[in-house]
Amino acid sequence: MSQALNHNQESFLNYISKRLGRERRSNVTSPKYSQFPWDHLYQDLNQEGLIQQFIENLKAISGKVIRIPSSQVAEQILQIVKEIQAKRVISWDDPRLDEYGIEEFIKEKVEYMKWDINKDFETLTQYAEKSHLGITFAELGLSETGTIVLYNEGGKGRSVSLLPEVHLAILPSNKIVPRLTQAMKMIKGTLDEYGRLPSLINFISGPSRTSDIEMVLTTGVHGPKNLYVLIVDE
Fold first, then answer.
1. What share of the chain is helix, strand, coil (3-state, %, to 5)?
2. Measuring CA to CA, how many Å separate 193 from each of 33, 186, 188, 196?
3. What is the DSSP letter of 72?
């Protein structure tokens, strides 16, 4: 965050506190609950059960799911590139993607760019906007709704999952949890471990869709028209 933006934010928050007639609050202590009524939900499902529930629920909202071993990730992505006839691909600049050798596997087949923060932001967004496929890495999957969770910051630009025609996310099978409540616990764990959270946490349930246009369900209006999730067994 730039110094000017940070100053403006601080000034705005101080103004709000003054108008409320109290000092700004900080270091808020999280409440301690005596009961957790949601813990019993899906407790009969083991990890394989959660994976199958995730697959069923994502397919129900028009998402495409493919489950593969880690050794086949790059090959499967190339297959999807051919399937959707992609000519231009953008991906996160994420070491976890590098482990699958994705760049080396596809850059000779299509025009390819990483979301490199050393590049001009406008150049990156324009490239993402004209890309046919954007590749990301999901932190979590929620089996109850078929939702994926992305952490956006640095080389993990939000535009990669928002602007291309098709979004492809890699999701380790051991990162699928039952529902939002478990996800929030894990996000809190991220805060406890690193002392901060990413600039944006993005929850995505299926491809972009809306029914605002004459009450007809339409996909791809506010984002990618298709979502692929590769569930990877490590």
1. 35, 25, 40
2. 22, 10, 9, 8
3. G
Residue 128: how many CA atoms within 13 Å on its side-chain side? 26
Direct distance between the N- and C-terminal alpha carbons of the chain, in angstroms, rounded to an integer: 36
pTM above 0.90? no
CA 84 to chain centroid? 21
- The kind and range of the H/E element at 93 are none
What separation in angstroms does the CA of 197 have from each of 100, 184, 208? 26, 12, 25
Q: What are the pLDDT digits (tens) for 141-183?
A: 999 999 999 999 999 999 999 999 999 999 999 999 999 999 9
CA distance 56 to 180: 17
Instruction: Name the token pair of 87.
Output: 């000519």
CB 108 within 8 A of CB 143: no
The residues near 107 (Cβ < 8 Å, ≥ 6 apart) are none
101-119 pLDDT, tens digit each: 999 889 889 999 999 999 9
The percentage of residues in the chain with a pLDDT greater than 70, rounded to a whole number, is 91
Contacts of 215 (CB under 8 A, 6+ apart): none
- Please count the other Cβ atoms lying within 10 Å of the Cβ belonging to residue 17: 13
- Please answer whether residues 156 and 150 qualify as being in contact, where contact means their C-beta atoms are separated by less than 8 angstroms: yes
